[in-house]
Each structure stands twice: as structure tokens, then as C-alpha cells.
# Entry
Amino acid sequence: MEFTNFISYFFIAIVVVASSGIFLTKNVLYAALLLVFSMLGLAGIYVLLNAEFVAVTQIMIYVGGVLVLVVFAIMLAHNYSGKPLVVENNNLKLGLFTVVLFVGVVGYSISGVHYAVQKEQDGANSVEAIGVQLISRNLLSFELIAVFLLVSLVGAIYFASKIRKT
Amino acid sequence: MMSLEPFLYLAGFMFAIGFAVLVIKRNAIFMLVGLELMLNAVNLNFVVFSKMHGTVEGQVVAVFVIVIAACEVAVGLAIILNIYKHFKNIDHHSINELKG
# Structure
């Protein structure tokens, strides 16, 4: 039990440090690499929360797909002149004020709620339960999201391929 | 098992950081990274509450959110590439005309 706590706080620390780094850095490439770290930390947290399927999906889609796309876009959408890709800030004071306000309100509301005692997970194999849920209760949203994914990927390819023609 | 509240605080913190990146940085790719952070914070909340209730409903929704995030990134990056081709820049302050 003690060891599980230690691992949880370790992953939480990874995610906190990586996402703060995204905010603090001014280099786009560093932000993409720090996003990898925070996604991997989140995947570890999902495993600790008995959500193995979500963890594997997270690693496959974010680290394998989304991050590759982001790095490609960084390479294609910048002028290279040997300088690092530095980004300016704007709205700094107003943005920070909003964020501090948000953290205060959310932290206060989380600390004010009394949470019920956790129930035990019914059935050890959550992957099987997710499969049953996807095909029975959430079948309509599953099919809709499949069509949505297809349409948006075809649209993205069409958009991106128009660049070459013109 | 430890209490699940630290994960809720973490989700709130990640959402706030994602919002800050989205508002403060002057670069379209940075804005997309901030959006990803916000979506992941929501996902973490779904998984934590699914654990709290002892069902897998929340995990199913989390998988849906991941799929939608993938769609959003693909379409968003295609739009960013088009904007870069037109304006030679992805600073969203320089994108100020509707019909090029």
C-alpha cells in the first residue's frame, strides 16, 4: 500500500512538472516533448486506477499519433534559420489572473466535497467490461464516433493536400 | 488504496495550465498543445470518478474523448498548415483578414 502511494505521487509529480514546463517554456519543440512526458505520466496514473485499456489507448494514440503529427507540423510550419523556435507571450497578467482564480475555485470546491467510500470494481477484467459496454449500451455513440473519425481524417487529408496543388 | 482526491487536484491543475497556455502563447501549435492538456484533464476526471463508482462507464467516455482529441488534432494541424502557407506565419495576431 505504501509503495502504491509512492508510485502515485511519483506519476503526479511527473505530470505536474511536465505541464508546468509547457507553460514556462517558449520553445515549441520543448513543449511537444514535455507533452509526451505528461501523457506518459497520465498513462501510469490510469494503470494505477485500474483503467488499463485507457492507458494503452493513451500511449498508442497520443504518444504514437498525436505527438508525431505535432512534430511534423512544427517542422512544416516554421522558417528555419538556425535560431530556436521562440514564441512570444501576450495577455500575460489577465491570463494568469484567470488561471489563479480558476485554481482557487476548483481547489476549494474539491476540498469541500465529502466523497463516498469507493466500491470495489465488479470483475477484475476491466477491458472485457469496456468491450461489452461499447457494443451494448454505448453502441450508437461508438458507431457515430467511428464515422466522425473517418470523416474528419478524410477532411484533414483533403485540406492538407490542397497545399501542394495550388 | 490511497484516496483519489490528489488526482482530482491534479486534473484541476492541468486544466488551468492548459487554459493558460491556450490564452497566453502566441503560436497556433502551442494553442493546440494547451487544448490537449485540457482534454486530458477532463479524461483524468472521468477515469477517477469511474474508479470511485466501481463501474467502467467513465472509462468508455474517456476512450471517446481520446478519439475526438485525435480528430481535433488532425483537422487543426491541417488548418495550421494552410494558414502557414497563406500568411507565412502561425502567430494568430497576424491572421486578421477573412478573405485573403
In short: Residues 57-87 of chain B form the longest helix (31 residues). Chain B has a mean pLDDT of 88. DSSP finds three helices and no strands in chain B. Chain B touches chain A through 72 residues (CB under 8 Å).
